[in-house]
Write a structure and sequence with these properties.
mainly alpha, Four Helix Bundle (Hemerythrin (Met), subunit A), 5 helices, globular, disordered N terminus
């Protein structure tokens, strides 16, 4: 995951606003396709499919020679997505330290308590919907540099989020296969 010094030299302007009169059919189509990409996964399994039916006792299990557990992947996705969302909408957001701030704090690889998994899933879904709303809002300019960034645009952040989630959803499915917990 890329890290830049996003927490420095921030203005309070945030996202650049579009001129609504200038919105074109192409702009609306691009927004619709970006939201669809973030929501559905397109050519591969989506997040909901990747976590569906995973037994609670395997959420902290690590297959042989595999670096992650399902819990660690879920939390990494949640934290990274939160960072991308907050960077996109909040000029005061401070990105966590890389890499330690982007992975769960538990040493066991398992959720710290029975509710932690559900809380993480709920938070990931809420933040994903919030990013979709940012993208869908025609007053947010997809192409203008984010005022507090280093040249990033809302379009870039949406594509980064889709790419990052897709990569780790694939890892989550592979871990489930190695644990014998993926439907055949």
């Amino acid at each position: 995951m890329r890290r830049t010094s996003r927490s420095k030299n921030r203005s309070s302007k945030g996202l650049q606003k579009s001129n609504s009169a200038a919105l074109t059919k192409r702009d609306r189509l691009l927004r619709k396709q970006l939201v669809w990409l973030l929501r559905s996964g397109n050519a591969h399994a989506d997040f909901n499919a990747a976590i569906a039916g995973l037994p609670a006792n395997l959420r902290g299990a690590k297959p042989t020679n595999c670096p992650y557990t399902p819990w660690q992947l879920l939390e990494h996705m949640r934290i990274a997505q939160w960072d991308i969302l907050e960077f996109s909408r909040d000029p005061r957001h401070v990105t966590p330290d890389w890499p330690s701030g982007f992975w769960p704090k538990t040493n066991t690889g398992a959720p710290p308590n029975p509710q932690a998994w559900n809380n993480s899933v709920r938070s990931l879904r809420q933040d994903l919907k919030a990013m979709q709303r940012l993208i869908a809002d025609p007053t947010n300019d997809l192409f203008a540099p984010i005022s507090h960034g280093d040249g990033q645009t809302l379009l870039r952040e949406a594509l980064l989020l889709a790419d990052h989630n897709s990569y780790h959803i694939g890892e989550l499915i592979l871990v489930r296969r190695l644990l014998g917990a993926w439907p055949s």
